[in-house]
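Fold it.
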Amino acid sequence: MTLAVRIERTRFNVFRWRYELSLPMKLALALGMAALTGLLAQVRVYLPWSPVPLTGQTLAVLLAGVALGKWWGGISMTLYAALGMAGVPWFQGLNGGLAYMAGPTGGYVIGFILAALFLGYFTDKYITSRRFMSMLGLMLSASLILVYVPGLLQLGLWLNIVKGEPVTLSGLLMMGAVPFIAGDITKAIAAALIARGITPQTSYGKEADRGK
């Protein structure tokens, strides 16, 4: 058996295993991914003109759907948001509580749930989505649309209602999107490379394009 065949068989076995796991095991993995997101949230750089910092957590968000699948990637990010609101100090800056979610960056956390659900759906549904270019396109869409849109909406509302500082669309983009695009593209490339390296190129479940 060649090395390439062994690697592919290992990928297949791992993903079939996680596809068939019991509920408690899936919950444990979801909690683990939520904790990883919280850990990477502490890797942050503050920008003087924005209340939104650069963080490393998007990398974990992008991999959550790939690693956990159709529903459990989203559940892991839901646990991250819910436990953080309940007081677990794993939001950026070791913050926790409902006040954080109501603040300028809470919308991005909601976007994390959408992004993980989106990527998990495609990873489990289509074998072709696991190719590098396909996965990169999906991850860029998840990061730059599904995370940014709710993030920017809440940031705009927070600036207008809480701070009393009406902001233009261009100003909002400069605070909550433009400074992060290069970093998020880099993280998407890294996550797509990891995803291509760990996902099998054969069916492990009920993919719509198996046998094609």
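The chain has a mean pLDDT of 91.
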